[in-house]
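Hello Y.,

Per our agreement to keep a running log of every chain we model this quarter, I'm adding this entry. I've kept the format consistent with earlier entries: sequence first, then predicted structure.
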Amino acid sequence: MNHDFDIEKILEHLRTCKHKKLILDTDTGCEIDDQFAITYALLADDIDLLAITAAPFYNPRVDSVKSGTKASYDEILHVHSRIDPENKLNTPVYLGADDYMKNQFTPQICEAAENIGRIVNEADDIVYIAMIGCYTNVASAILLHPEIIDKAVIVMIGGQKPYMFDGDANEYNLGQDRNAARLIMSSGIPVVTIPAGECSEQLYTFTGEMYYFCSEGRSGKIGNYLVERYDEQEFPSYVDGKCNSCIRTIWDIGAIAFIRNPDKAMKYFIEDSKTIDAAGKWRPLNNGRKMIMADYNSRTQRNIIYSDFFNVLKDADKYYKN
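Predicted structure for the entry above:
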């Protein structure tokens, strides 16, 4: 099934009860929000997770972009083992690019890019590609297999709202991978943008909520692991024996929530397609096509998304059963 570059057709497809085919491209070694998104996608009964691909990143936790990709790959496998240890879902994991795209014309050859193209071409329905890290794997797949723009839809965490910061789109994901972002947006592939500033940053959780819903056996082995990661990364629940209640944003679950139920998960606007320039400023494409720009109604959407996430987690150990 092709989407015909029709945003309304894509939204109608998302609103159906059928399983949504998904590829999750994730920089899981970067921090902790990707672990939540993988868990959400693997356990959701209306998502057919076709593959998880390891996206590159660079921050103080790694010594190079290449080691960031490897850290993402290793962490994907670790999270997967806590949910589906025998791989009953048959979800493949592919290693991504060693570096970011150097320009808009030269792909980074890697097994992630090759298999994104193959999987989309083999699918009998629209494939959603959730980009919750940097964008090089997916941009490279488009360069290697340009025909996939006819049947894939990008759901990306990143950028900023166009009217903020004097039209500056740069944030962590987009700012370090602008060549890939420009290629994807200008390719014509339908894009759903879930901005960082004032949007996905509102998807916060806090210590008490995590402990209540994810620990004490309520959410299986993966729930315990999510609590461990929440505790160990920057916000321990106890410091010198004293309670330390914290709020933390789990940005990336917004992409999964949108694919599951776009109308409940967030507000969104259908706009003329945009791209960015070399400096990361939003620019119109003037190609006659549309894109979706998401927004949140703060507390209301945040509560809907987390309620859905925690309900999905209730049966977290189901793949351990015979």
